[in-house]
Amino acid sequence: MSHLTEFAVYQIYEWYEDIERRLGEVVRVLPFVEAAQLKEVRSPRLASILLEVASLVDALLRDQLPESFIGAKGKTKQKKNANIDDYRKELEPGLGLSGSQSLLLMGLPSLLRPFAPWADSNDNVLPWWRAYNKLKHDRLSGSGAVTLEECLQAACALNHVMMSVPIIRSFVFRFDWAQLAGHSPHMAIKVLGKPADQGYVAYTNFFATFLCPVIYRSVDDIRPIDFRNSERLQSHLGRLGKSGEP
Fold this sequence. Notes:
With 246 residues, the chain is α+β, with helices and mostly antiparallel strands. The chain has helices spanning 6-29, 45-63, 84-95, 127-137, 139-142, 148-164, 166-169, 185-191, 231-237, and strands at residues 68-70, 76-78, 102-104, 110-112, 201-203, 207-210. The strands form two sheets. Strands 4-3-6-5 form a four-stranded antiparallel beta sheet, covered by helices on one side. A two-stranded antiparallel sheet has the order 1-2. β5 and β6 form a beta hairpin. It is globular, with a radius of gyration of 18 Å.
């Protein structure tokens, strides 16, 4: 299982924040307003970001596996030979990544669920992972085809993996992704990832990631007041409750 040290966790946060800085540089040059526009924004500069982000997702998921396990095709496999289908079979029941959600904080508010296809037993291909695999095997011709949507989905996926692994998630207050809002660190860490009357949100430059189970069909369903550290959600959505609530 996981062998992550405290130093490794610090590196992971620093790598992630550097990735968002690089994405921010692209967005300043190629701005967008609506989520639908993300598919139309392409740049060769996105290729290296997608490769790095997805390779970190791969490394973190692999780290969560036992040394040997029964793979997706029913055969014993070694951890070093695992693929994305093995991650879904072995890790999804415990991590629940298919249900993880983030609010995009750039442009108009929209919800992101990069692992949502894992909830579908018939079609569980992750589009951003498919783009990564294609680019990995043909970087010269594929660099110009990478979209901002694929990069943002991959970055959001890395965010969700980080927030699903307890040892990484426990550093969320140290890096000021989440704010204690008057509660003790000891008690706050205990409620992360669990159902709670008032949970926490992890904020980065691009995402507000919900650190307790939520089921939102649309942005209108989000109630900022349900979270202890809701100030940034309130500012971004311009409300305390659901859309239309008094």
